[in-house]
Amino acid sequence: MKLKRILKRILKWTSLAILLALFAGIVLLFIAYWRSTNDCDSMVSPSNPMKAIVYCDYGLANLKLKEIEKPVPSDDQVLVRVHAASVNPYDWHFVEGTPKIMRMMGVGLRKHKDTRLGVDFAGTVEAVGKNVTQFKPGDEVFGGRGGAFAEYVCPRASRAVALKPANITFEQAASVNIAGITALQALRDKGNVQPGQKVLINGASGGVGTFAVQIAKSFGAEVTGVCSTRNIDLVRSLGADHVIDYTKEDFAKGAERYDVILDNVPNHSLSECRRILNPNGKYVMIGGGGPNDSQWIGPFGRVINTMVLSPFVSQKMGMMMADANQKDLTVLGDMMQSGKVKPVIDRTYKLSEVPAAIAYVEQGHARGKVVITVE
Ligand SMILES: NC(=O)c1ccc[n+]([C@@H]2O[C@H](COP(=O)([O-])OP(=O)(O)OC[C@H]3O[C@@H](n4cnc5c(N)ncnc54)[C@H](OP(=O)(O)O)[C@@H]3O)[C@@H](O)[C@H]2O)c1
Fold it and tell me: Which atom of ligand 1 is nearest to the CA of 209?
């Protein structure tokens, strides 16, 4: 009897503690939500203005071209006059704040913390900090830095910025950073692609795909690109040995086996992908979380599935996240210089048209890259 009473009491206090913790959690989340803010409220009129795309609230309609303070490079930064920038699906994830789990992971619950947009840029160095030795005013550069939809950016000289090859335009150079680095690292580091291997690129006509086809070919692989009918000629012109038109044929049902699958459009189950991989093949998941996918967790469910599955199967399966850095920008610069890789540009928009450019990319049917010209 005594034991029963003690157990009842433990149960009662444990339930109460759980309820209290839940209540405290909800209150804290509520407070964090309403306290979440950004610098829009404290913006003063700039003394040395530049034009930039700024957004104060989530949503495409809130993107505005504004005059804000022109950045000043710190000791280890370079000031770059931006001539062109490019749009990535990354940008609309931030504009929309989706998948919403991102908001809880530091992007900002009610309002996003960072009000600036764009990453990829190309331009001319205007000034350098006193510790910078590798760049000088007048150098033509390309790379990645938050807030690239603007007249100026200040990347750190040792981070994602490199000299632009002379044989490519600013528009082409601006399209490289995220898409080119993703394709390079996925094929070289995750896929470990070797000459003669069979590589399938799902989503071969998009930003990442158009770089991936060319890079895989430069590694000596036999490349199969998956795209729709209207992009067959484009993907073939980039060097693909075989092209599968996804509107007519399902690559996952074919008889061919691949050493590496680079998946920009994870629209097949992992078991379907495994079926067409060689026993020691590698599945590299790049994309996911399009506008029609889960608004809450986006591609993260599939990422967890690949992580759980991978240790139990002979093939290597996993997600990869691009890491923009100077070394790989230089590798891509060399590939462009030697003509092995040529960025594909779909459309160009003006800085004031960034909302339209992002809306276009959000539809998921860009052919290569969408570029913003900043003049
Ligand atoms: N993990 C990372 O670090 C990383 C880095 C960059 C990008 N990403 C992600 O990777 C994905 C691709 O990025 P991206 O810049 O290449 O995007 P993107 O340029 O918007 O890709 C659009 C392309 O996808 C093609 N596509 C759409 N549906 C398809 C289908 N069912 N089968 C085959 N192709 C299809 C489209 O061709 P059609 O018009 O012919 O349909 C279009 O050419 C995105 O989800 C992005 O968020 C991840």
Answer: 16
